[in-house]
């Protein structure tokens, strides 16, 4: 049975173990041989079980600090986030030339190299795309109509939006979000560092 490695357009054959041993024993050895000792396949029941796992996303809206972005990547990896969306001028792990952003790489402890992420021009674009896919979008902000995080029952598919270090989540994002959740501020300050906020909400529903 022939297959193709699409990245390099290389064809290869799947053969039985006897044929594999025969080729290895031959005097002419061309190409490359792989031997897969064992494998498993999921039945329909198991596939349904795996598909029942939740999908969690985080949207970083106009965050200036690369250190904050890196810290959020590290927490996102630890809390099982599926993808990080970087909106507006939020710095990315690599620039358009493929060069690594040193501060993000350092603060994330390399999580920015292994996690799935995507740069998006506008918050509206990513919110509407996720909502079409059935994802509940939750903006994290102290705002009229916001509900305490402890009262928010996290759905299986959720995306949290955290905003700019000074301005917070944009008005447009608040209007488009399915729900606005807030963290209690019991002191004189009205906000937490954005990476701390992200850590709290990403572990909501896990702990």
Which features would summarize this protein structure in a list?
207 residues; alpha/beta; Alpha/beta knot; 2 domains; 7-stranded parallel sheet; two-stranded antiparallel sheet; 32% helix
Oligomeric assembly: single chain
Level-2 CATH architecture of the largest domain: 3-Layer(aba) Sandwich
What is the helix tally?
Answer: 8
Q: How much of the sequence is in beta strands? A: 15-25%
Structural class: alpha/beta
Shape: elongated
Report the average pLDDT across residues: 84
| Number of E strands | 9
The CATH homology group name of the largest domain: SPOUT methyltransferase, trefoil knot domain
Radius of gyration from CA coordinates: 23 Å
The order of strands across the largest sheet is 5-4-3-8-6-9-7
What is the CATH third-level topology name of the largest domain? Alpha/beta knot
- How are helices and strands ordered from N to C? EEHHEHEHHEHEEEHEH
Low-confidence stretches: 1-8, 44-52
Largest sheet: 7 strands, parallel
User: Class of the largest domain in CATH?
Assistant: Alpha Beta
